[in-house]
Specification:
By secondary structure, the chain is mainly β. Helices cover 7% and strands 25% of the residues. The chain has a 4-stranded antiparallel sheet, with helices on one face. A two-stranded antiparallel sheet has the order 1-2.
Length: 100
């Protein structure tokens, strides 16, 4: 007679099921109408994309406590923000030291 090895069964893990496409949250967009009566609604499955507005025109640099660009107070700030914080000098990234 042969000896059988004991079979170790893996524990069953429950499967996570996604809700049906029809039951997922829908974005309801209201369309403006000229009539005072009913307001038409448009249903779409796509999520709205919110773009961050970036203003790259304002130069940002490092704010220093001393006039010869020593003793860092703040980084990635504008000249006016540096002046308000009490900085003595300001340096743009890759630029020269400027006294305030």
């Amino acid at each position: 007679m042969s000896i059988r090895k004991p079979v170790i069964k893996k524990p069953k893990t429950p499967k996570i099921k996604k809700p049906l496409i029809s039951k997922r949250k829908k974005i309801v967009k209201k369309l403006p109408t000229l009539s005072i009566g009913r307001v038409k609604t448009k249903v779409s499955n796509k999520k709205s994309v919110i773009h961050k507005k970036t203003n790259s025109k304002i130069p940002r640099g490092t704010c220093y406590a001393e006039e010869n660009c020593k003793g860092v107070i703040l980084r990635k700030v504008t000249k006016t923000q540096c002046r308000n914080e009490g900085g003595k000098s300001w340096k743009k990234a890759g630029g020269t030291c400027e006294k305030l």
